[in-house]
Every structure is written in C-alpha cells, then in structure tokens.
Amino acid sequence: MYKKNRIAAIIPAKKSNDNIAELNLKYLGEKPLITYTIKAASESDLIDKVFLSTEDTSVSKLAKQYDIDVPFLRPMELTKPSVTAKEVAIFMLNKINELFDVILILMPNAPFRDHDIIDSGIKFLVDNNLEKLRSVSKLRDYFIPDNHLENENENENENDKRGNRKEFPNFSEKTVVAGGMYIYKFDRLFKHNDELEFEDFYIPRHESMLIKSLYDLLIAERLVNLNTNLINTLTDST
Fold first, then answer.
1. For FRET with 31, which of 79, 172, 210, 220 sits at 20 to 30 Å CA-CA?
2. Cβ-Cβ contacts under 8 Å for 193 (sequence gap 6 or more)
3. 41-51 confidence digits (pLDDT tens)
4. Cα–Cα–Cα angle for 60, 8, 94, nearest 5°?
C-alpha cells in the first residue's frame, strides 16, 4: 500500500512467447527467467498482492513455490497472439472480484527490473496523480548526432580549412518502451477505447532489457555472470 492506495501486480505469463517456446521457463543464470519478475514483485514494499496469469501448469507450480497467487489457469482463448496483457489483467481482476486502487502489469521477460524500480514507478504515478504510465529508456544513436544534418554543410568547409576532423558531441537519443512495466489507476485500466497517452517513466538501460529472442537470452546470461561493480559501470555508461 502507498498513500492509502491498495496495489496489485499481475504477471501475464502464457506458455510460449511468439518467438520462443516456453520462454518463461528458459534458464537465466541458475533459475527460470520468470522467477526474476516474481522475485522483484514479491520484494516490493508497496504491492499488496501479486497474481500470475498462465495456462501452463509448470509455470503455475513455480509461481506457487514463491507464494504467488494463481487463482485459476488462463482460458485458451486468452493465449492467442492478438490478446493483450491489458485484456488478461482485466479478465483476472473481474474473475477474482477484488478492488484495488493501482494495478501493475509486469511482463515476465524483464529480468533486471528490480523491486526498487517497481516501487519508484508506483510512487511516480501516485505522487503526480497520473492515470497510467509505462517504463521507458533512452536509446542513444552513436552514428547520427542531433546537429549532424542541420550543421553538416556549414561545418564542412570550416573543418576542411582547419584540417580538423569533425566532432559531434551531442548524439541523438530516442525514448523507447522498455522494462515491461505498465501501471494504471484501477478505473483507467477498465476504460474502453482509452485514448489517454501513457506517461513515460524512465529507468536505467541495464534494468530495461527485455528478453525477446535467444540472442537476448545469451546477452542476459553474460550480464548475470558479470560482477556487480562491472554491471554498475556498464549501466552508468549507457
């Protein structure tokens, strides 16, 4: 609970990712991928209840080992690629018939998003009286600087005269959806044809990684095996 807001987290974890079969149970380090999200949600200081939605009995059994509530197995019609995590969350909440003030949807393929990030996102939404937000990160483009196109022609002659190599100190940055965290006020989650845009909640690049392929899983495995100091250095530099 935070500032009298009752808070629930829902982890949508269907059996197979669209690209990788049984992604949630693929091992990262010495434990299944989904356990990182389960652990982060369980360690949150603000979440009152954590629910997991799956049709997979193996995932359900694993979640229950961590005392995560799996009230029922998800109907097969809600496992289709066209079904959104929001639809799954609404179905879950209608089924359990419990009232909450804030709802988190935590995607299970974000192993480095820890409980501190989750709690910070909750506080950001509540403190700023927001209706919904999503976790995002900054992606830096090292090849196309911000001032490249507009200054290219005027700088070219000057650089040639001085015999200096061009330098572009300001590189382009893009905001990308990352980290697999969506937070709603309860009533906003249930709005149909919702046109309200998400507020962006920025998280560090390292904690924003999403596993969408076997290549991502390989990179994450390398990161898990790095020592903490090296990871912090990497995080600060990205």
1. 79
2. none
3. 999 999 999 99
4. 75
